[in-house]
C-alpha cells in the first residue's frame, strides 16, 4: 500500500491516533451495512410468509422461516401466461451462456494473439475499430439485429441469442487477450519460428499454456455479462426462450393477482445465484477483469 | 503457396471478427441512422425524408423528460459514485486488517444483474412496506420516503440504486490506482514532514488523473446504457417520470411500433456516447502508440 | 572455400525509413563475426534479416552457398540465441531443447540422443526436468545455447546474449562462448553493443552506425587502424585520444603542430605524414602516450604537458591533460611521478598514430 505509516506528525497524541482508527473502522462497517442491507432484506423477505411481510418490519428477521416462496419462485411463479416458475428460464440462461462464453472466449484468444504478436499493416486500426464496438449503446443495433434474426430464421431462439452475445462480446474478449498477450516477449515467437513452428503451433504450444489467468478472467467477465444481460434477452427472445433475467422481471412486474413479495425476492436471489457464486469463489479474477482495460498501467 | 498462407494467416484469422464488427456494429449503426431519416413506422421504409423524426423527437415532452433525466441521473450518479468510490478507496488504503472481506462486500453488487438490483431496491423503497414503513414503525410517524411513486423524486431512487451497484467498482479502480503511485515519491514527502492528508491531496490524487478519467468513462457509459435498472425499479414511471432515452427507445421500438422514433432516439444516444468516448479512446490509443 | 555467409548490397526499409544501407559482408566457415555499434545502429535488425525474421528490401543473402533471401527461418539452417533467451516458460528444459526437433518430426530416439549429447556438452544434465523459471541467468543461457546446438546448424546467431547478466557472470559466459566456438569450429554471428566483447570474441568485426557499415576488419585492424573518427572513438577503452592538429609539410615528412594551454604549441615530427592536408585530427591511444623515459620506439617524441588529473587504476595510472583544446588521457605505469597541477614530460609514440580528415572524419593514413 502507499505506506503512510510514518507520516503521522509526532505531536499527535497516541489517543488521537487510536480514535481516528476507530472512526475509520466504524465508517467501514457502516458502509458494509449499506452494501449488505439489500441482500439481507432479500434473503429475509424470501423466507417470510406474506402475512409476516405485511405486518412485520422490513429489517426484522423472519419469525417463522418458510421456504414456500422459494418453491413457488422455482416452479410455480407466473411469467405472463405460463406459471412454471423460473426453472425453465434458468436453464435457458444456462444453454445460452455456456456456448456463448466458450465461443466468444476462443475467438477473443485468437484475435488477441494476432493483434498482440503478429503485427501487420492496419492491425492497430482494425483493433481500434473493434474496440470502439464495445462502447456503443446497444440500442443502436437493436432494430437491425431484430430484422436480421428474423431473416435468418433465428428470431426468438436461443441460438439467435447466442449469436448476438458472441458478436458483441468479441470486442471485450479480444481486448482482454490482447492486453495479456502483449506482455509476452515477442522473442518467444521468434525462437519458435526459428524452431520451425507455424502460427497455430505457436499458439497451441506456447501461448495457450500461458493463458490460464486471462482465460479465467475472460470467462468470468463474459459469463457475468451474458447471464446478467436483459436488453438483448428481452428484445430477441419470446415466451419459451427467455433468459432468467427477463423471466424475473416478468414475475416481479406481472400485474395479475396479489403481489407476492417473498416470491419476488426468492426469484431475484435464484437469478442472481450463479454470478454471485462465481464472484465469491473467483472474485479476485473478477476484479482483475473489471480493471483490466481501465487502469492505465 | 504455403508461404503466402503463412504470411497472411494472421490477417485471415482476424478477418471474420473484423468483418463481423464492420457489419454488425458499423453497418447496423448506418442502418439505424438511415431509418432515423425516414418516415418508418411499424415497418422500415427506406426513402429519406430528412430530419422529420428528430423534429418529432425533440418536440416530444416524453423525450424531453428522458433527456433531462439522463443528465440529472448521469451527473448525480457519476459524481456520487466517484466521490464515494474515492472515499472508500482511501479508507481501505489505510492497512485495514480485514481488507479482503470488506472489499468483497463493497464490490459484490457489481456481480448482480441490474434487474436483480432494481427488484431489490424497488422492494426496499416500497412506500407501504419498505423503509418508510419500517422507520414509521420505529416511532417516526411522519417519516415519508415515497420517492419511488413520486414523479418529482423517482429519478433519485434510480441514482440510489445505481450508486449502490457501481460504487464498489469505482472503489476497486481507485484502490488499484492509489497503490500504483510510486512509493519513493511518498517516502520523499514523508521525509519532508508532509502530513498524511496533504500527501493524499497534493501528491496521490493528482497523479491518479488518468484513472479518474477511466472511471468517468465507464460510469458515463453505464449511465447511458441504464435500461435494465429503470425497467426493474420503476418501469419508467410513475408515468414517464423516470424515462431515460434507453427506455424511450425500447418503448418506441417494441411497444409503440414506431421504428422511426426508435431509430432516431437510438442515434441520439449513440451521439452522446460518441462525444464522450471518442476523445478518450483517441488519446489513449495515441499514448499507447507513442510509448 | 565458399563463404558460409554472403551478404550483398542488402537494404532494409520500414516504410520510407532506411534502416540498413548497402550492407556487404562475407565470412568463411569457422569465423566469429561480431556486429557492434551503438543502440539504433541496425545491428539487431541485420541479425534478424540474416535469420529471416525480418524481410529484406533489396540485395541478396546466401548461407552455405544457397540463396536464402526469401527463405523462411526454419529452412535457413540457422540457430539463434536471444537476449532474453526466449525459453518456452511452460516447458521443461528438455522439452525446450527438443521442441524444434519435435516440430520437424524427428523420431523420438534421435531426439533423446541429441538431447543427451548437448546436455553433457553444456553440463546441464541435472537441469533437464526443471522449468526456465527455476534456473539462474547463467543456466538459462546454457539452455538457450543447448537449444541452438541441437540443431547442428550452419550458422549460430547471437543477439546480445550477455546483456542481461551482471558483470562477473558476463565475463564467465563470454569465455564459455569463446570456448564453444573453438571446440565446435562453428560459424557464428554475434551482436553486441559492448566493444570489449567484440574485441575478445571476434575473428572479424563489423562496426555499424546509422544502418551503414563503418568498417569491417579483424580486431587488430579495427583497433590499430580505425577507418574513421567514429570507429576510433567507439572501439577501445578508454577511448582513443582525438586531437586537432595543424600539419606543415617540410622536405622530410611533416611537422605536426598541436596547441597547448598556457604554452607554445607542441611540434611533433612524423616522416610518414607527407601528403596530409593542413587540418587533421590526430589519433593516439592512451597506451601510446607514456611518461618520458619509459617508452622506446622508432618515433617517440617528448613534450612538456600540464597534468590536470591523476587517476590510479591499480596496474596503471591514467593521467589527464589537455592538448589541441581537447582532454587527453595517457596510460602510464603505476609508479609514475605525475602529480596533478604540475608539468610532466610526456612521451608520444607516433608509430601507431592515426590521422583523420577534419571535415569527413575519414582515415588519411
What does this structure look like?
The complex is a heterotrimer of chains A (297), B (291) and C (365). By secondary structure, chain A is mostly helical. Chain A has helices at residues 14-46, 50-55, 68-75, 87-117, 123-132, 139-152, 158-181, 186-194, 199-210, 212-228, 231-236, 244-253, 261-292. In chain A, helix 4 packs across helix 10 and helix 10 (212-228) packs antiparallel against helix 13. Chain A is flat, with a radius of gyration of 25 Å. The mean pLDDT of chain A is 86. In chain B, 74% of the residues lie in helices and 0% in strands. The model of chain B has no long low-confidence stretch (mean pLDDT 85). Chain B starts with a helix and ends with a helix. Chain B is flat, with a radius of gyration of 24 Å. Chain B has one domain (60-290): MetI-like (MetI-like fold, Orthogonal Bundle). Chain B has helices at residues 2-35, 52-59, 61-92, 99-107, 114-124, 131-137, 154-179, 183-191, 196-207, 209-225, 228-233, 245-255, 259-290. With 291 residues, chain B is mainly α. Chain C has two domains: 5-234, Rossmann fold (3-Layer(aba) Sandwich); 241-357, Nucleic acid-binding proteins (OB fold (Dihydrolipoamide Acetyltransferase, E2P), Beta Barrel). Chain C has 365 residues and is α+β, with helices and mostly antiparallel strands. Chain C is elongated. Chain C contains eight helices and 21 strands.
List keywords for this structure.
heterotrimer; A: 297 residues; mainly alpha; MetI-like fold; 13 helices; C: 365 residues; alpha+beta; Rossmann fold; OB fold (Dihydrolipoamide Acetyltransferase, E2P); 2 domains; six-stranded mixed sheet; five-stranded antiparallel sheet; 8 helices; 21 strands
SSE arrangement:
The complex is a heterotrimer of chains A (about 300), B (about 290) and C (about 375).
Chain A: H1 14-46, H2 50-55, H3 68-75, H4 87-117, H5 123-132, H6 139-152, H7 158-181, H8 186-194, H9 199-210, H10 212-228, H11 231-236, H12 244-253, H13 261-292
Helix pairs in contact in A: 1-13, 3-13, 4-7, 4-10, 4-12, 5-7, 7-10, 10-13, 12-13
Chain B: H1 2-35, H2 52-59, H3 61-92, H4 99-107, H5 114-124, H6 131-137, H7 154-179, H8 183-191, H9 196-207, H10 209-225, H11 228-233, H12 245-255, H13 259-290
Chain C: E1 5-14, E2 17-27, E3 32-36, H1 43-51, E4 58-63, E5 66-67, E6 78-81, H2 93-103, H3 108-122, H4 137-149, E7 155-159, H5 167-184, E8 187-192, H6 195-201, E9 204-209, E10 212-217, H7 219-224, H8 229-234, E11 241-249, E12 254-260, E13 263-270, E14 279-284, E15 289-291, E16 300-306, E17 309-313, E18 316-323, E19 326-333, E20 343-349, E21 354-357
Parallel strand pairs in C: 3-8, 3-9, 6-7, 7-8
Antiparallel strand pairs in C: 1-2, 1-4, 4-5, 9-10, 11-12, 11-14, 12-13, 14-21, 15-20, 16-20, 17-18, 18-19
Helix pairs in contact in C: 2-3, 2-4, 3-4
